[in-house]
Specification:
This protein has eight helices and six strands; from the N terminus they run αβαβαβαβαβαβαα. By secondary structure, the protein is α/β, with parallel strands linked by helices. It has a single domain, classed as NAD(P)-binding Rossmann-like Domain (Rossmann fold, 3-Layer(aba) Sandwich). Strands 3-2-1-4-5-6 form a six-stranded parallel beta sheet, sandwiched between helices.
């Protein structure tokens, strides 16, 4: 679990620089997304919204690190991806009381799914001046609403895996405390064993795969 945790630290702490009392939305509730949520909580985020299309993942995310969960609606027949993404964003805002601006707006998006509609929805969801970190890698070419990037003056960053040399990343003093906060603290989103379904020795690798 150290690799997805390192990706979470790199994307949420190093790149997005999440601060206390911010609102963070994470697309994708897989291993990377879940640990990105945990890092956001450790950074002091007031709300962490988990977004996924699989209900069981959302249920676990809510029991683990998310303060809110959202399952996007089904697309309408003939609806374009951009139109669907805008509608999905508006549905989330209405359901969770998220606003376009102000304290209840989304400050940071961590996109950990790589799905085009999730990327698009994130642009509609984030508030002006927000930070959008793209972690998930799906199709090589996706359509994004460029006018929102410009009009909202967003900060968009790409995250490729994790930083391997923390002494040059500015995170060397922070990481020991972060690791302790997530792995050892009694908070419900901290114990790593909750993310582990099975343990295998190196001799059982074929069974694990």
């Amino acid at each position: 679990m150290m690799e997805p945790l390192a990706v979470g630290v790199h994307s949420v702490y190093t790149l997005a620089q999440v601060r206390p009392n911010q609102v963070v939305a994470v697309f994708g509730a897989g291993p990377v997304g879940l640990l990105a949520m945990a890092v956001a909580r450790a950074c002091g985020a007031r709300r962490v919204i988990a977004i996924d299309i699989i209900e069981s993942r959302l249920e676990f995310a809510k029991s683990y690190a998310a303060t809110d969960i959202f399952c996007p609606p089904k697309p309408h027949e003939g609806e374009s991806r951009i139109a669907y993404s805008k509608r999905s964003s508006e549905t989330l805002k209405k359901a969770l009381g998220v606003t376009d601006t102000g304290a209840n707006g989304v400050d940071v998006i961590t996109e950990a799914s790589g799905a085009e509609v999730c990327i698009q929805t994130g642009y509609y969801l984030i508030k002006p001046g927000g930070v959008f970190v793209q972690v998930g890698m799906g199709a090589l070419d996706v359509q994004v609403p460029l006018h929102l990037l410009l009009s909202k003056q967003l900060v968009v960053k790409g995250a490729f895996r994790c930083v391997l040399h923390f002494e040059t990343s500015g995170a060397s003093d922070f990481l020991p405390g972060m690791a302790q906060a997530i792995i050892l603290s009694p908070s419900p989103w901290s114990p790593m064993e909750r993310l582990t379904s099975s343990l295998w020795s190196h001799t059982g690798l074929s069974q694990c795969l």
